[in-house]
Write a structure and sequence with these properties.
There is one protein chain. The protein has a 5-stranded parallel β-sheet with strand order 3-2-1-4-5, with helices on both faces. A two-stranded parallel sheet has the order 6-7. The chain is elongated and about 55 Å long. The protein has 7 helices and 7 strands; from the N terminus they run βαβαβαβαββααβα. 39% of the residues lie in helices and 17% in strands.
Length: 192
């Protein structure tokens, strides 16, 4: 099997969201670095310590200057990053209003831009979900219930259910039962 690797872009600017900061950073850093790019990463102003801790753990694995962290608010750090002529590509994950601004800033230099904006993830449920009283039927309503666990603060939040009409009432009833079983509070207790 032959692999084709694209020529590195140069310096990639990545602007992270506040939710799941380490996960999002790893998802975005790994491919950019593997392709031979340097990265300037701007963590969300609400969660910079997460990223700084991550870099503290893995920073010595990278050559100097391959990964730089820029902290600050959007206007003072994100805007200059997205509009810099030294940046060859900008990646942003976050809400739509800021995404529009990032695209506007990047367009000044015709920078390639990737936007992953907040969404309303639909979950389709077809009649086969209700075909048998089995583990699959027991697990499927959990998909409807997941909206209650992250309050829509994750772009993959299943905030919409598309349910086939022939099983709509029966499936929705199972979803309602599962949702009422959700309890607020901490899921785990620290051992310290």
């Amino acid at each position: 099997m032959a692999y084709h690797f694209h020529e590195p872009l140069g310096v990639v600017g990545q602007i992270m969201p506040w939710n799941s900061p380490i996960l999002m950073a790893v998802w975005k850093l790994a491919p950019a670095l593997a392709a031979g790019n340097a990265v300037v990463l701007k963590p969300a102003e609400q969660t910079p310590v997460s990223i700084l801790h991550l870099i503290e753990l893995v920073g010595d694995l990278l050559p100097a200057g391959v990964l730089d962290i820029v902290n600050g608010f959007g206007v003072e750090a994100g805007k200059p990053l997205a509009s810099s002529s030294r940046i060859r590509k900008t990646a942003f994950t976050g809400e739509t209003t800021t995404g529009r601004l990032i695209l506007q800033y990047a367009s000044r230099n015709l920078i390639a831009t990737t936007l992953e904006l907040g969404g309303k993830s639909p979950n389709p449920f077809f009649a086969d979900v209700m075909a048998e009283d089995d583990a699959f039927q027991d697990k499927a309503p959990e998909g409807v219930t997941m909206f209650a666990l992250d309050q829509g603060e994750v772009c993959t939040c299943p905030s919409r259910a598309l349910i086939q009409a022939s099983v709509y009432d029966e499936f929705l009833e199972l979803g309602a039962i599962r949702t009422t079983a959700v309890r607020q509070g901490t899921r785990w207790t620290p051992t310290r």
